[in-house]
Write a structure and sequence with these properties.
176 residues; mainly alpha; 8 helices; 78% helix
Length: 176
């Protein structure tokens, strides 16, 4: 959490960095929705409960993308294209998805990583008010996503995908 707070303090005070991050956040939320639906359709079709949970999460991610898109519009920042947007983190983790459990484990790792940043923003009384308000709304649903993914994954899949998650974090510069 300490690293996320330091990152947020640098980012919120640099308009260009803040705008770049909001664009990345928009892409992340929007592409997450599609990625989760693909996981559901490829591996969750025989598990009604998992399919329902993944559908709920995808809908919430799409809603989060809409909220971040509104922040971008208010700031006069054009919405970026989503085609081909996979991000630096995803190269290794996506290769580890072989079934519903490993797909959910990859989702749990990604959500846990993002939660620290979302918490830093939501809890910062000095954050721009509109941004803080949006991330306060996003936070409980992202906590649900991480928990649900972790539960659907199980510990074996969480451990099996940990190295790929670490490589993804390294690609983002979050770990040495």
């Amino acid at each position: 959490m300490k690293h996320s707070i330091a990152w947020w303090n640098r980012t919120k005070n640099n308009p260009a960095a803040l705008h770049r991050w909001l664009i990345q956040q928009y892409r992340g939320e929007a592409t997450a929705a599609s990625r989760i639906e693909q996981l559901r359709d490829a591996h969750g079709i025989d598990d009604a409960r998992a399919s329902h949970i993944l559908t709920v999460i995808a809908c919430q991610e799409r809603k989060h993308a809409d909220w971040v898109a509104q922040l971008l519009r208010v700031r006069g920042i054009p919405l970026p294209a989503l085609a081909g947007a996979t991000g630096r983190y995803w190269k290794e983790p996506l290769q580890e998805i072989h079934d519903l459990q490993t797909g959910c484990a990859v989702g749990a790792h990604a959500e846990a990583m993002r939660l620290a940043r979302i918490e830093a923003i939501a809890e910062d009384d000095e954050a721009p008010e509109d941004i803080r308000e949006v991330f306060q709304r996003i936070l409980p649903e992202e906590r649900f996503h991480e928990h649900a993914f972790r539960m659907l994954a199980g510990e074996q899949a969480m451990e099996a995908t940990r190295d790929a998650h670490d490589l993804g974090q390294r690609a983002l510069g979050l770990v040495p």
